[in-house]
Each structure stands twice: as C-alpha cells, then as structure tokens.
Write a structure and sequence with these properties.
Blueprint lengths: L1 H23 L4 H53 L1 E3 L5 E4 L2 H4 L4 H33 L8 H11 L5 H11 L4 H8 L14 H25 L3 H9 L4 H29 L3 H7 L6 H10 L6 H29 L5
Antiparallel strand pairs: 1-2
Helix pairs in contact: 2-13, 4-8, 4-10, 5-8, 6-11, 8-10, 10-13, 12-13
Amino acid sequence: MESQSEVPVLAETVSPLIASSEQLAPAGPAPSAGVLVTGSGHPARRERLGSALSTALFVGPLLLVLLAFLIVPAFAVLVGAFRADGVDGAAGGFTLDHIRALGQPQYVSGLKNSVLLSGGSAILGTVLGGLLAYAVLGEGGPAWLRNPLIAFSGVAANFAGVPLALAFVATLGTTGMVTRLLSSAGINLYQHGFSLFTFSGLILVYTYFQIPLMVILIAPALDGLRREWREAAENLGASAGQFWRMVGLPILAPSLLASLVLLFGNAFSAYATAYALTSGALPLLPLQIGAVLSGNVLNDPHLGQALALLVIVVMTLTMLIYTGLERLGSRWRR
C-alpha cells in the first residue's frame, strides 16, 4: 500500500523537471530553419541589387541620349525663342518679338497647311490602315498573312524621307513608270490636275507611310476584341451591324482616336519628304523652320526657335492626348 501511494508523488515530482528540461533543450529543426531564413535574406538582397544595376545599365544610356538629344535641345529652343540678339552677336535680354512674329501671314499659312496635310493623311491612314488591319488581323482573317503584314508594316512605316520621295518620283513623277503606263493607255494624270509636287501629291505620299503605322498601332486593339462578345451579341439576336455599332466600335474608339492623333503628330513633324518633293515651295511649318535657320532668305535663329517651339507644343499636346486615349483603350486588352 505504501509503495502504491509513492508512485503519484514521484510522478508529480519528476514531471515538472521533465517539462523544464524540454523548455531548456533547443528544438532540433529550429536552428536549421533559423539558418535558412537568415541565409535566404542575403540572396534576395543581392538579387534586388543586381536587378537595380541591370536596370541602370540598360536604362541609363537611354536617359543620357534623351537628355542630350531631346531635353537639352528643347530647353535651348525654349530659351532662344524668348531671347533677343545683343550687340556683336552677344546674348540679349528677354523679348516677345519672335513669338509675335508667328502671327505673320506666311507663318499662319504654314501652320494651316501643316495641320491640313497632317489631318488629311492621318484620316486616310486611319481608315485605310484600320480596314486593312481588320481584314487580315481580325477574326476570320487569313492567318498566313498576319506575320508578313506585320513585318511589312514595320519596314514601310519607317520608309520615309528622301528615299520615299525618290521612290514616288520614279513611280508617279512626270516621267514615272506608272505615269507612262497610264499615258500609253490614254490617261494623263498631269493633264487632269494631279501633280506629285503639290498638296494633293504630298497627302498621297504621306498616306503611304501612315497606313502601315496604323496597322501596327491598331493590331493590339483588334486582338483585344474577344470572340465571346460577338457570340453573346449573336445569341441576343444582334446583327453584325448592331454588334459593331453598339459593342465593337465603342470598344475600339479610344484606340482608333489615339492612333489618329499619333498619325497626325507623325505627319506634322515630317520634313525631308516634303522638302525633297516641293523644294520648300509649299509653305509648311517644318520647311519654314529649315528656311529660317539655313539663311537662304532670312537668317534669324531665334525666329526659327520660336517656330520650333510651336512644333514642340503641338507634339506635346499630341502625345498627351494619345497617352490618355491609349490608357482608356487598354482597359479592354487586360
């Protein structure tokens, strides 16, 4: 009886000792887990540092190029547009004479022609390029033409300047290949009022590189049109016209307007193509800037900077509008 009563007492005495020894004894996997957690912080820190260095390595040169060839020249144009010439070519003080000179009739006409030329070619490029892109890249289009069209558009959108002007002169000039072929068939383009070296000819040439650029710009928006939307509209009894009027075009509208604005800016700042075709005879704002800076008729660098400032303002507004519209259109491509 006495031995049986000693067992609970012994158990009560030993159990606290066992519990205390377990608390003092380190857990087996804990040190190794702690080492792993501590060691895993250093690779993560090194990975972040490597990512920052690689970003600086690749983005840094781009920022330097933008600073040297965009930001600094734009700032120089801004300062020069409001600066007067001093004595013996020294820098003068602040003046608004060059800004007021922008109201002269020849510069107003140049701005008007530039807006009309850019707007006309942008509208034609948007319509024709959008239809071409939908016919090939849209639902049901020939899949084998998709990659060739994208590749050709990437090349043709950058084929501008003097080479493009020479190509059109060899094709539709007074002695161009197409002009001579049509003349042999009894159709004389130049006797019917067409001329490659006039305003209408420039619109035709500008439209050539606007169409492929439109194909590149609108392709992501066309890919964002989901087949489920068309199927849902058909299940609800909508016709193809109703689908495009109520679903398709409202979704594509921001992207179409953004592309139109970007095409306008692309044509507004073009210089070499217009100069090669018209030799400066057609008053356009970029050509007038070149004429003022070259000194063929009037050598006034500050007036040229004032004209260039007007172009910068137009291009800045164009990019801001494009960015806002593109942000609206990108909601449907997520």
